[in-house]
Amino acid sequence: MYPFSFFCRWLVLGIAMVRFYIQKGTHRGLFRSVQKTLKFFQTFALLEVVHCAVVRTSVLVTGVQVSSRIFMVWFIAHSIKQIQNEESVILFLVVWTVTEITRYSFYTFNLLNHLPYFIKWARYNFFIILYPAGVAGELLTIYAALPYVKKTGMFSLRLPNKYNVSFDYYYFLIIVMFSYVPLFPQLYFHMLRQRRRVLHGEVIVEKDD
Predict the structure, then answer these.
(1) Is 48 an annotated catalytic residue?
(2) Which of 48, 124, 138, 170 is catalytic?
(3) Catalytic pick among 131, 143, 163, 202
(4) 187: closest CA among 65, 85, 94?
(5) pTM of structure
(6) For residues 207 and 177, what is the distance between their CA atoms, to the nearest angstrom?
(7) For residue 134, what pLDDT is reported?
(8) HSE of 149, CA atoms in CB hemisphere, 13 A
């Protein structure tokens, strides 16, 4: 069962994070300890875009969420090791984990036609705090990465070169940060509309994505 397999994956990751903190008593080194598992799970989530019809999720919403997370994992946290111990990294890791455990438990019980009210309530209430917290963690992490990117010139292409094209990863990250301004409200209000529809029975008419 597709949702149940993803629930188990994120539960394993969550348990690994809790166990690390209990054993070490600090968040330093946590990302490094779980990064292989995180990279596999989050990259594998690309399949979720294909399975939107199964889990009844908007293709646009899912695509934005999955692509932004893959970007954070591979092109920020993985590539810039100096920021891996930032508290903001742990913040978005915890938010992602709680969000996905809640979401996939909802999908699993829903497919079984046996959905406990608490699971439904958690699915459509936890995000009110988790979404802004996750976005804050991602933005603060990108901000922390900027000095290292500027200093090293990583992923940048300078002129002159044989392609006659220039690219500055530092300014690209700044653009990415500003892109959250229009994108986050759309995702957040989409979830608020879903919350009203599911928990309060309101009829919401939405445009096709």
Answers:
(1) no
(2) 138
(3) 131
(4) 65
(5) 0.90
(6) 27
(7) 97
(8) 23
For the stretch 58-92, pLDDT in tens is 677 778 889 999 999 999 999 999 999 999 999 99
Please report which confidence band the pLDDT of residue 57 belongs to, taking 50, 70 and 90 as the band edges: low
Q: Based on the number of CB atoms within 10 Å of its own CB, is 107 exposed (0-12), middle (13-18) or buried (19 or more)?
A: buried
Q: pLDDT band for position 121 (50/70/90)?
A: very high
User: Apex CA 141: angle with CA 39 and CA 55, to 5°?
Assistant: 45
Cα 175-181-187 angle, rounded to 5 deg: 120
Lookup result for tokens 């979830």: 191
| Tokens of residue 93, six digits | 């890791």
Please provide residue 157's backbone torsions phi and psi, each rounded to the nearest 5 degrees.
-125, 120
